[in-house]
Design brief:
CATH class: Mainly Alpha
Mean pLDDT: 87
Number of domains: 1
Order of helices and strands: HHHHHHHHHHHHHHHHHHHHHH
Radius of gyration: 21 Å
Structural class: mainly alpha
Number of helices: 22
Low-confidence stretches: 425-432
Distance between the termini: 28 Å
CATH superfamily: MFS general substrate transporter like domains
CATH architecture: Up-down Bundle
Length: about 425
Protein backbone atom coordinates (compact mmCIF):
# COMPACT_ATOMS: atom_id res chain seq x y z
CA UNK A 1 0.00 0.00 0.00
CA UNK A 2 3.01 2.32 0.23
CA UNK A 3 2.72 3.32 -3.42
CA UNK A 4 -0.82 4.58 -2.79
CA UNK A 5 0.33 6.45 0.30
CA UNK A 6 3.02 8.01 -1.89
CA UNK A 7 0.42 9.00 -4.48
CA UNK A 8 -1.78 10.51 -1.74
CA UNK A 9 1.10 12.45 -0.15
CA UNK A 10 2.33 13.79 -3.48
CA UNK A 11 -1.17 14.71 -4.63
CA UNK A 12 -2.15 16.53 -1.44
CA UNK A 13 1.22 18.30 -1.30
CA UNK A 14 1.04 19.47 -4.89
CA UNK A 15 -2.66 20.41 -4.67
CA UNK A 16 -1.90 22.76 -1.81
CA UNK A 17 1.25 24.02 -3.55
CA UNK A 18 -0.89 24.98 -6.53
CA UNK A 19 -3.43 26.68 -4.26
CA UNK A 20 -0.78 28.78 -2.53
CA UNK A 21 0.96 29.47 -5.87
CA UNK A 22 -2.10 31.21 -7.28
CA UNK A 23 -3.61 32.41 -4.02
CA UNK A 24 -3.10 36.00 -5.22
CA UNK A 25 -5.37 35.61 -8.28
CA UNK A 26 -8.76 35.96 -6.51
CA UNK A 27 -7.56 39.12 -4.76
CA UNK A 28 -6.13 41.12 -7.69
CA UNK A 29 -8.91 43.70 -7.31
CA UNK A 30 -8.31 44.71 -3.67
CA UNK A 31 -4.53 44.35 -4.06
CA UNK A 32 -4.59 46.61 -7.14
CA UNK A 33 -6.61 49.15 -5.18
CA UNK A 34 -4.25 49.10 -2.18
CA UNK A 35 -1.03 49.30 -4.21
CA UNK A 36 -2.39 51.36 -7.14
CA UNK A 37 -1.86 48.79 -9.91
CA UNK A 38 -3.07 49.06 -13.52
CA UNK A 39 -4.36 46.16 -15.63
CA UNK A 40 -0.95 45.93 -17.34
CA UNK A 41 0.78 45.81 -13.94
CA UNK A 42 -1.56 43.03 -12.82
CA UNK A 43 -0.46 41.19 -15.98
CA UNK A 44 3.16 41.60 -14.88
CA UNK A 45 2.28 40.26 -11.41
CA UNK A 46 0.61 37.25 -13.01
CA UNK A 47 3.66 36.69 -15.19
CA UNK A 48 6.03 37.13 -12.24
CA UNK A 49 4.38 34.18 -10.51
CA UNK A 50 6.18 31.99 -13.05
CA UNK A 51 9.58 33.71 -13.36
CA UNK A 52 11.54 31.41 -11.04
CA UNK A 53 9.74 28.21 -12.01
CA UNK A 54 11.82 27.19 -15.08
CA UNK A 55 15.17 27.07 -13.29
CA UNK A 56 13.58 25.90 -10.05
CA UNK A 57 11.90 22.91 -11.68
CA UNK A 58 15.02 21.90 -13.58
CA UNK A 59 17.05 22.03 -10.37
CA UNK A 60 14.56 20.28 -8.09
CA UNK A 61 13.93 17.52 -10.63
CA UNK A 62 17.61 16.67 -10.54
CA UNK A 63 17.77 17.09 -6.74
CA UNK A 64 14.84 14.68 -6.35
CA UNK A 65 16.76 12.03 -8.29
CA UNK A 66 19.83 12.73 -6.18
CA UNK A 67 18.43 13.05 -2.65
CA UNK A 68 14.90 11.65 -2.83
CA UNK A 69 11.56 13.42 -3.14
CA UNK A 70 10.51 13.57 0.55
CA UNK A 71 13.51 15.67 1.58
CA UNK A 72 13.23 18.10 -1.35
CA UNK A 73 9.43 18.45 -1.10
CA UNK A 74 9.64 19.24 2.63
CA UNK A 75 12.30 21.92 2.12
CA UNK A 76 10.31 23.69 -0.60
CA UNK A 77 7.03 23.68 1.35
CA UNK A 78 8.80 25.07 4.43
CA UNK A 79 10.37 28.12 2.82
CA UNK A 80 7.24 28.78 0.73
CA UNK A 81 5.21 28.85 3.93
CA UNK A 82 7.63 31.25 5.60
CA UNK A 83 7.58 33.71 2.69
CA UNK A 84 3.80 33.51 2.36
CA UNK A 85 3.50 34.55 6.00
CA UNK A 86 5.99 37.36 5.39
CA UNK A 87 4.00 38.64 2.38
CA UNK A 88 0.93 38.99 4.61
CA UNK A 89 2.73 41.69 6.61
CA UNK A 90 4.18 43.57 3.60
CA UNK A 91 3.55 47.32 3.72
CA UNK A 92 5.35 48.28 0.52
CA UNK A 93 4.71 46.90 -2.95
CA UNK A 94 8.42 46.10 -3.37
CA UNK A 95 8.40 43.80 -0.32
CA UNK A 96 5.08 42.30 -1.37
CA UNK A 97 6.29 41.63 -4.92
CA UNK A 98 9.56 40.10 -3.72
CA UNK A 99 8.00 37.78 -1.16
CA UNK A 100 5.28 36.61 -3.55
CA UNK A 101 7.98 35.92 -6.13
CA UNK A 102 9.48 33.39 -3.68
CA UNK A 103 6.06 31.98 -2.77
CA UNK A 104 5.44 31.36 -6.47
CA UNK A 105 8.23 28.78 -6.48
CA UNK A 106 5.65 26.48 -4.85
CA UNK A 107 5.00 25.40 -8.43
CA UNK A 108 8.35 23.62 -8.63
CA UNK A 109 6.93 20.89 -6.39
CA UNK A 110 5.26 19.47 -9.49
CA UNK A 111 8.42 17.76 -10.73
CA UNK A 112 9.23 16.50 -7.23
CA UNK A 113 5.91 14.70 -7.06
CA UNK A 114 6.24 13.40 -10.64
CA UNK A 115 9.60 11.87 -9.70
CA UNK A 116 8.23 10.46 -6.45
CA UNK A 117 5.23 8.77 -8.09
CA UNK A 118 7.35 7.35 -10.92
CA UNK A 119 9.62 5.70 -8.34
CA UNK A 120 6.69 3.61 -7.07
CA UNK A 121 4.47 2.75 -10.08
CA UNK A 122 5.06 0.36 -12.98
CA UNK A 123 5.19 1.59 -16.59
CA UNK A 124 1.70 0.35 -17.51
CA UNK A 125 0.24 2.42 -14.63
CA UNK A 126 2.38 5.54 -15.01
CA UNK A 127 0.07 7.60 -17.19
CA UNK A 128 -2.92 7.04 -14.93
CA UNK A 129 -0.99 7.53 -11.67
CA UNK A 130 0.79 10.66 -12.87
CA UNK A 131 -2.50 11.94 -14.29
CA UNK A 132 -4.25 11.52 -10.95
CA UNK A 133 -1.36 13.19 -9.15
CA UNK A 134 -1.05 16.16 -11.49
CA UNK A 135 -4.75 16.49 -12.26
CA UNK A 136 -5.98 16.66 -8.68
CA UNK A 137 -2.89 18.67 -7.81
CA UNK A 138 -3.53 21.25 -10.53
CA UNK A 139 -7.11 21.58 -9.29
CA UNK A 140 -5.61 23.39 -6.30
CA UNK A 141 -5.83 26.53 -8.43
CA UNK A 142 -9.59 26.00 -8.73
CA UNK A 143 -9.76 25.36 -5.00
CA UNK A 144 -8.04 28.66 -4.41
CA UNK A 145 -10.39 30.51 -6.74
CA UNK A 146 -13.48 28.94 -5.19
CA UNK A 147 -12.52 28.70 -1.52
CA UNK A 148 -10.22 31.60 -0.70
CA UNK A 149 -12.49 34.54 -1.67
CA UNK A 150 -15.36 32.88 0.22
CA UNK A 151 -13.42 32.05 3.38
CA UNK A 152 -11.56 35.37 3.29
CA UNK A 153 -14.36 37.62 2.07
CA UNK A 154 -14.36 41.40 1.68
CA UNK A 155 -15.87 41.73 5.16
CA UNK A 156 -13.08 39.69 6.78
CA UNK A 157 -12.21 40.76 10.31
CA UNK A 158 -9.81 38.43 12.06
CA UNK A 159 -7.56 38.44 15.10
CA UNK A 160 -4.45 39.39 13.08
CA UNK A 161 -5.68 41.14 9.93
CA UNK A 162 -8.53 43.36 8.81
CA UNK A 163 -7.60 42.77 5.16
CA UNK A 164 -8.82 39.56 3.53
CA UNK A 165 -5.88 38.87 1.23
CA UNK A 166 -3.37 39.35 4.02
CA UNK A 167 -5.21 36.81 6.15
CA UNK A 168 -5.34 34.37 3.23
CA UNK A 169 -1.59 34.57 2.67
CA UNK A 170 -0.81 34.16 6.38
CA UNK A 171 -2.95 31.09 7.01
CA UNK A 172 -2.01 29.31 3.79
CA UNK A 173 1.63 29.81 4.79
CA UNK A 174 1.01 28.13 8.14
CA UNK A 175 -0.63 25.14 6.44
CA UNK A 176 2.32 24.82 4.02
CA UNK A 177 4.77 24.44 6.90
CA UNK A 178 2.56 21.80 8.51
CA UNK A 179 2.41 19.82 5.24
CA UNK A 180 6.21 19.96 4.99
CA UNK A 181 6.51 18.12 8.29
CA UNK A 182 3.95 15.48 7.24
CA UNK A 183 5.68 14.84 3.90
CA UNK A 184 9.10 14.43 5.49
CA UNK A 185 7.83 12.06 8.18
CA UNK A 186 5.64 9.79 6.03
CA UNK A 187 7.34 9.93 2.60
CA UNK A 188 9.60 7.14 1.29
CA UNK A 189 11.85 7.88 -1.68
CA UNK A 190 11.45 4.67 -3.75
CA UNK A 191 9.87 1.22 -3.76
CA UNK A 192 13.23 -0.51 -3.27
CA UNK A 193 16.83 0.23 -2.37
CA UNK A 194 17.86 -0.93 -5.85
CA UNK A 195 15.49 1.53 -7.53
CA UNK A 196 16.67 4.38 -5.30
CA UNK A 197 20.31 3.57 -6.11
CA UNK A 198 19.72 3.36 -9.86
CA UNK A 199 18.00 6.73 -9.88
CA UNK A 200 20.67 8.31 -7.68
CA UNK A 201 23.48 7.05 -9.91
CA UNK A 202 21.83 8.54 -13.01
CA UNK A 203 21.81 12.01 -11.43
CA UNK A 204 25.06 13.23 -13.01
CA UNK A 205 25.67 16.41 -15.00
CA UNK A 206 26.68 14.44 -18.11
CA UNK A 207 23.57 12.27 -18.04
CA UNK A 208 21.37 15.30 -17.40
CA UNK A 209 22.77 17.12 -20.43
CA UNK A 210 22.32 14.07 -22.63
CA UNK A 211 18.68 13.49 -21.71
CA UNK A 212 17.84 17.21 -21.81
CA UNK A 213 18.87 17.51 -25.47
CA UNK A 214 17.14 14.43 -26.91
CA UNK A 215 14.40 14.99 -29.50
CA UNK A 216 11.79 13.49 -27.21
CA UNK A 217 12.69 15.68 -24.24
CA UNK A 218 12.81 18.90 -26.28
CA UNK A 219 9.52 18.24 -28.04
CA UNK A 220 7.68 17.29 -24.85
CA UNK A 221 9.06 20.40 -23.16
CA UNK A 222 7.75 22.62 -25.94
CA UNK A 223 4.43 20.79 -25.88
CA UNK A 224 4.29 21.56 -22.18
CA UNK A 225 4.88 25.25 -22.93
CA UNK A 226 1.65 25.33 -24.93
CA UNK A 227 -0.36 23.28 -22.43
CA UNK A 228 0.83 23.64 -18.85
CA UNK A 229 2.33 27.06 -19.57
CA UNK A 230 -1.05 27.98 -21.00
CA UNK A 231 -2.78 26.59 -17.93
CA UNK A 232 -0.61 28.68 -15.63
CA UNK A 233 -1.31 31.81 -17.64
CA UNK A 234 -5.06 31.22 -17.60
CA UNK A 235 -5.10 30.46 -13.86
CA UNK A 236 -3.46 33.77 -13.11
CA UNK A 237 -5.36 35.79 -15.72
CA UNK A 238 -8.93 34.56 -16.17
CA UNK A 239 -10.37 36.13 -13.00
CA UNK A 240 -9.08 39.48 -14.22
CA UNK A 241 -10.29 38.77 -17.78
CA UNK A 242 -13.85 37.92 -16.76
CA UNK A 243 -13.92 40.95 -14.49
CA UNK A 244 -12.44 43.52 -16.90
CA UNK A 245 -13.33 42.01 -20.30
CA UNK A 246 -17.03 41.67 -19.54
CA UNK A 247 -17.42 44.31 -16.82
CA UNK A 248 -18.13 41.62 -14.21
CA UNK A 249 -17.35 43.57 -11.06
CA UNK A 250 -18.44 40.83 -8.64
CA UNK A 251 -15.13 39.38 -7.41
CA UNK A 252 -16.60 36.06 -6.30
CA UNK A 253 -18.49 35.61 -9.58
CA UNK A 254 -15.44 36.38 -11.72
CA UNK A 255 -13.33 33.96 -9.66
CA UNK A 256 -16.03 31.30 -10.02
CA UNK A 257 -16.03 31.71 -13.80
CA UNK A 258 -12.23 31.37 -13.78
CA UNK A 259 -12.44 28.26 -11.61
CA UNK A 260 -14.34 26.37 -14.33
CA UNK A 261 -11.17 26.39 -16.43
CA UNK A 262 -9.04 25.23 -13.51
CA UNK A 263 -11.46 22.42 -12.69
CA UNK A 264 -11.30 21.14 -16.27
CA UNK A 265 -7.52 21.52 -16.53
CA UNK A 266 -7.00 19.74 -13.24
CA UNK A 267 -9.62 17.08 -12.72
CA UNK A 268 -9.69 15.87 -16.34
CA UNK A 269 -5.93 15.34 -16.51
CA UNK A 270 -6.10 11.71 -15.30
CA UNK A 271 -8.16 10.96 -18.42
CA UNK A 272 -5.27 12.17 -20.57
CA UNK A 273 -2.88 9.81 -18.80
CA UNK A 274 -5.33 6.91 -18.80
CA UNK A 275 -6.01 7.17 -22.55
CA UNK A 276 -2.26 7.17 -23.21
CA UNK A 277 -1.85 4.03 -21.05
CA UNK A 278 -4.86 2.38 -22.69
CA UNK A 279 -3.70 2.99 -26.26
CA UNK A 280 -0.18 1.75 -25.45
CA UNK A 281 -1.44 -1.31 -23.61
CA UNK A 282 -4.00 -2.27 -26.30
CA UNK A 283 -1.73 -1.13 -29.18
CA UNK A 284 -4.50 0.90 -30.79
CA UNK A 285 -3.84 3.35 -33.63
CA UNK A 286 -6.10 6.41 -33.55
CA UNK A 287 -3.96 8.40 -35.99
CA UNK A 288 -2.50 5.99 -38.57
CA UNK A 289 -0.04 8.56 -39.90
CA UNK A 290 2.02 7.73 -36.76
CA UNK A 291 1.42 3.98 -36.94
CA UNK A 292 2.64 2.07 -33.89
CA UNK A 293 3.42 5.21 -31.85
CA UNK A 294 0.36 4.96 -29.63
CA UNK A 295 1.21 7.47 -26.92
CA UNK A 296 2.48 9.96 -29.50
CA UNK A 297 -0.79 9.81 -31.47
CA UNK A 298 -2.85 10.81 -28.45
CA UNK A 299 -0.42 13.60 -27.55
CA UNK A 300 -0.59 15.03 -31.08
CA UNK A 301 -4.41 15.01 -31.19
CA UNK A 302 -4.54 16.78 -27.81
CA UNK A 303 -2.08 19.49 -28.88
CA UNK A 304 -4.13 20.24 -31.99
CA UNK A 305 -7.28 20.53 -29.89
CA UNK A 306 -5.62 23.14 -27.65
CA UNK A 307 -4.84 25.36 -30.65
CA UNK A 308 -8.40 25.18 -31.96
CA UNK A 309 -9.99 25.99 -28.61
CA UNK A 310 -7.71 28.99 -28.08
CA UNK A 311 -8.91 30.42 -31.37
CA UNK A 312 -12.41 29.77 -30.06
CA UNK A 313 -11.67 31.87 -26.95
CA UNK A 314 -11.18 34.96 -29.10
CA UNK A 315 -14.40 34.32 -31.05
CA UNK A 316 -16.36 33.74 -27.85
CA UNK A 317 -14.95 36.88 -26.26
CA UNK A 318 -15.75 39.03 -29.28
CA UNK A 319 -19.35 37.81 -29.12
CA UNK A 320 -19.72 39.66 -25.82
CA UNK A 321 -21.36 36.65 -24.17
CA UNK A 322 -19.53 35.93 -20.94
CA UNK A 323 -21.14 32.51 -20.44
CA UNK A 324 -20.06 31.45 -23.94
CA UNK A 325 -16.50 32.54 -23.09
CA UNK A 326 -16.67 30.56 -19.84
CA UNK A 327 -17.82 27.48 -21.78
CA UNK A 328 -15.03 27.73 -24.32
CA UNK A 329 -12.59 28.34 -21.48
CA UNK A 330 -13.70 25.02 -20.03
CA UNK A 331 -12.86 23.35 -23.37
CA UNK A 332 -9.41 24.98 -23.35
CA UNK A 333 -8.89 23.53 -19.87
CA UNK A 334 -9.99 20.12 -21.11
CA UNK A 335 -7.50 20.27 -23.98
CA UNK A 336 -4.71 21.25 -21.58
CA UNK A 337 -5.65 18.39 -19.25
CA UNK A 338 -5.62 15.75 -21.98
CA UNK A 339 -2.33 16.96 -23.49
CA UNK A 340 -0.57 17.32 -20.13
CA UNK A 341 -1.67 13.85 -19.08
CA UNK A 342 -0.42 12.47 -22.39
CA UNK A 343 2.94 14.24 -22.12
CA UNK A 344 3.64 13.04 -18.59
CA UNK A 345 2.62 9.52 -19.46
CA UNK A 346 5.49 9.63 -21.95
CA UNK A 347 8.16 11.22 -19.74
CA UNK A 348 8.78 8.43 -17.16
CA UNK A 349 8.09 5.73 -19.75
CA UNK A 350 10.86 7.13 -21.97
CA UNK A 351 13.40 7.82 -19.20
CA UNK A 352 12.66 5.42 -16.30
CA UNK A 353 15.88 6.08 -14.35
CA UNK A 354 16.00 9.83 -14.98
CA UNK A 355 12.35 10.73 -14.53
CA UNK A 356 13.11 13.57 -12.13
CA UNK A 357 15.70 15.19 -14.37
CA UNK A 358 13.55 14.92 -17.51
CA UNK A 359 10.41 15.99 -15.65
CA UNK A 360 12.40 18.98 -14.43
CA UNK A 361 13.36 19.98 -17.98
CA UNK A 362 9.88 19.42 -19.40
CA UNK A 363 8.11 20.98 -16.43
CA UNK A 364 10.60 23.85 -16.15
CA UNK A 365 10.62 24.84 -19.81
CA UNK A 366 6.86 24.37 -19.90
CA UNK A 367 6.32 27.13 -17.35
CA UNK A 368 7.74 29.69 -19.80
CA UNK A 369 4.29 29.86 -21.36
CA UNK A 370 2.98 31.04 -18.01
CA UNK A 371 5.47 33.91 -18.09
CA UNK A 372 4.92 35.03 -21.68
CA UNK A 373 1.22 34.45 -22.31
CA UNK A 374 -0.15 36.82 -19.61
CA UNK A 375 1.95 39.60 -21.14
CA UNK A 376 0.27 38.89 -24.48
CA UNK A 377 -3.22 38.84 -22.98
CA UNK A 378 -2.67 42.23 -21.31
CA UNK A 379 -0.58 43.81 -24.12
CA UNK A 380 -1.66 47.48 -24.44
CA UNK A 381 -1.23 47.46 -28.25
CA UNK A 382 -3.96 44.86 -28.80
CA UNK A 383 -7.42 46.25 -29.73
CA UNK A 384 -9.11 44.46 -26.82
CA UNK A 385 -8.62 41.75 -24.16
CA UNK A 386 -10.04 39.02 -26.44
CA UNK A 387 -7.53 39.06 -29.30
CA UNK A 388 -4.55 37.87 -27.26
CA UNK A 389 -5.83 34.30 -27.22
CA UNK A 390 -5.59 34.06 -31.02
CA UNK A 391 -2.08 35.51 -30.97
CA UNK A 392 -1.07 32.79 -28.54
CA UNK A 393 -2.79 30.11 -30.66
CA UNK A 394 -0.82 31.14 -33.77
CA UNK A 395 2.44 30.98 -31.78
CA UNK A 396 1.67 27.33 -30.96
CA UNK A 397 1.53 26.15 -34.57
CA UNK A 398 5.34 25.68 -34.99
CA UNK A 399 5.34 23.42 -31.92
CA UNK A 400 2.59 21.27 -33.43
CA UNK A 401 4.57 21.03 -36.69
CA UNK A 402 7.68 19.95 -34.75
CA UNK A 403 5.57 17.30 -33.01
CA UNK A 404 4.44 16.01 -36.41
CA UNK A 405 8.11 15.51 -37.36
CA UNK A 406 9.31 13.95 -34.08
CA UNK A 407 6.32 11.61 -33.87
CA UNK A 408 7.08 9.99 -37.21
CA UNK A 409 7.76 6.31 -36.39
CA UNK A 410 11.34 6.26 -37.68
CA UNK A 411 12.18 9.41 -35.68
CA UNK A 412 10.13 8.57 -32.58
CA UNK A 413 11.77 5.17 -32.07
CA UNK A 414 15.12 6.89 -31.55
CA UNK A 415 13.82 10.02 -29.81
CA UNK A 416 15.57 9.05 -26.55
CA UNK A 417 18.89 8.39 -28.33
CA UNK A 418 19.08 11.06 -31.03
CA UNK A 419 19.08 14.72 -30.13
CA UNK A 420 19.68 18.29 -31.18
CA UNK A 421 23.16 18.18 -29.60
CA UNK A 422 25.59 15.31 -30.14
CA UNK A 423 27.49 14.44 -26.94
CA UNK A 424 31.26 14.61 -27.19
CA UNK A 425 31.44 11.46 -25.11
CA UNK A 426 30.24 8.74 -27.47
CA UNK A 427 29.78 6.32 -24.58
CA UNK A 428 26.86 8.34 -23.17
CA UNK A 429 23.71 6.33 -23.35
CA UNK A 430 20.06 7.11 -22.84
CA UNK A 431 17.65 5.29 -20.56
CA UNK A 432 16.01 3.32 -23.32
Amino acid sequence: MTKYRTLLLATVGFNFSFLIWFSFAPFTGPMAEEFGLSIAEIGVLASAAIWLAPFGRILTGWLSDKFGAPVVFAIVLTYVGVFSIWSAFAESYAVFFGTRLIVATAGITFVIGIQHVSEWFEEEELGTAEGIYAGIGNAGAAGGALVLPRVFGTDWSGPLFQTNWRAAFFYTGVVAIGLAVVYYVFGEAAKSAEKRQATKESATAKEWFFTATRYGTVLLALGYVMTFGLELSMNSWLATYYRAGFNTQNLVLASTFAATFSIAAGLLRPIGGYVSDFLARKEKDILPVFTGRYREQWTFVSLCFVVLTMLGMTLAGLSGQVLLAVGVGFLVGMGCAFAEGAIFAQVPAMFPNSSGAVAGVVGGVGTIGGIVYPLVYAAPFLPNLHVGYSVVAVSMIPIVLLAAWVFQPHVAERATDDGFVTPEDSTAIADD
